[in-house]
Design goal:
By secondary structure, the protein is of the alpha+beta class. It contains five helices and five strands. It is rod-shaped.
Length: 195
Amino acid sequence: MAGISPNELHTSRHRLRGLLRRIVRLRTARRLGRNEDGAAAVEFAMVAAPFLALVFAIMETALVFFAGQALETAAADSARLIMTGQAQTKGFNQSKFKEEVCGKIYGLFDCAGGLYVDVKKYNSFASIPVDKPINNGNMNTATGYDPGGPGDIVVVRLMYQWPVYVSLLGLNLSDLNGGKRLLLSTVAFRNEPYQ
């Protein structure tokens, strides 16, 4: 140690310690990089939320389409009561006709509080409105009941405000305020010449 000063010895030791620390950190980083314990859990955590959101959105979309089809079937079956004159000859009013509709819909709908039934007579098929009864995000709930007589053109509309819970990536099924979608079923026909 004859040719090295104490200052140089201290500096060399300090450099050696720094080099050893970097080597240890590098080895630790490499060891952690190669260690795959828990990697599957981390990957699942990153993928689970979007996957579950997508699954729920698909299930809700399918349920909305299924409910719409159930409403279409009920409208077609119920409209037949008017088309054949059964509703007119039995003296149905709007509430009695709604009861008949509700007898064909069960399970999916709050028929008593949420289903709207609109039956109107028109002069021609061209005069029937084709737009949805929505104004500024609210459903127009003004309904009537005029089943007409033999040979009249009649439109039966069933409307239901279906709640929408999942909106994913800007895709939202709701078209009404309050996160609801209007399910609308329309049947247009000419009454048969019943007696």
